[in-house]
Amino acid sequence: MNPTLRDLPVEQRIRLVEELWDSIAADQEALPLTKEQRAELDRRLDAYEADGNQGRPAEIVLADIRKRL
């Protein structure tokens, strides 16, 4: 019988996913944006700059989430 990923403990599978994701993030130039993606990012950046709302600090957002759990 051939081993599969499901045979690995969950912790090890999570570690593999993290390593895989990190390797993809390191090679971002290999996946150039399409014209549509670049246009959407530009639209969102323009909306953010026009709004001027910088949001809330991550610590406050995380504390609010933890309160609801």
Description of the molecule:
InterPro entries: CHP02574_addiction_mod (IPR013406). It comes from Spectribacter acetivorans. The chain has 69 residues and is mostly helical. The chain has one domain (5-68). Helices cover 65% and strands 0% of the residues. It contains three helices and no strands.
Short description:
By secondary structure, this protein is mainly alpha-helical. It has three helices and no strands. It has one domain.
For this entry, give a set of tags.
mainly alpha, 3 helices
Secondary structure: helix percent: 55-70%
Helix vs. strand class:
mainly alpha
Number of domains: 1
State the helix count: 3
Low-pLDDT segments: none
Cα distance, first to last residue?
Answer: 42 Å
Strand content: under 5%
| Major beta-sheet overview | none
Radius of gyration: 19 Å
Order of helices and strands: HHH
What does the overall shape look like?
flat
Number of strands: 0
Mean of residue pLDDT?
A: 91
List the helices and strands and how they pair.
Elements: H1 10-26, H2 35-51, H3 58-68
